[in-house]
TrEMBL record:
Name of the molecule in the record: Bifunctional inhibitor/plant lipid transfer protein/seed storage helical domain
MF GO annotations: fatty acid binding
InterPro entries in alphabetical order: Bifun_inhib/LTP/seed_sf (IPR036312), Bifunc_inhib/LTP/seed_store (IPR016140), DIR1-like (IPR039265), NsLTP-like (IPR044741)
Pfam family of the protein (one): LTP_2
Entry keywords, A to Z: Signal
GO biological process: systemic acquired resistance
Length: 104
């Protein structure tokens, strides 16, 4: 594995651990990632989990509108570690009227 790949893998692993810890601990300090406050991820969780998720609510759409979605692309493979089904992201964005980056 090249030096760049090792660095990227370490960044992904660190982000996955931070997001997992932030979601699991209710009192966690919020951490901004790609313009998303980690505490705000819970607003979208129902719309990106399960077999038949409900449409996103207005609070979730507000989070989606301010998110730097292109910034999230490299983290797509790690979304399941924080309970997000990557195949549910594009429908969520469409329901919110947000253009989806090509990675989703």
């Amino acid at each position: 594995m090249g030096k760049d790949n090792t660095r990227i893998l370490m960044q992904f692993s660190a982000l996955a651990m931070v997001l997992t810890a932030a979601i699991m601990v209710k009192e966690a300090t919020s951490i901004p990632v790609c313009n998303i406050d980690t505490n705000d991820l819970a607003k979208c969780r129902p719309a990106v989990t399960g077999n038949n998720p409900p449409p996103p609510g207005p609070d979730c759409c507000a989070v989606a509108r301010v998110a730097n979605l292109q910034c999230l692309c490299p983290y797509k493979p790690y979304l399941p570690t924080v309970g997000i089904d990557p195949s549910r992201v594009r429908p969520l964005l469409a329901n919110c009227g947000v253009n989806s980056p090509s990675c989703f």
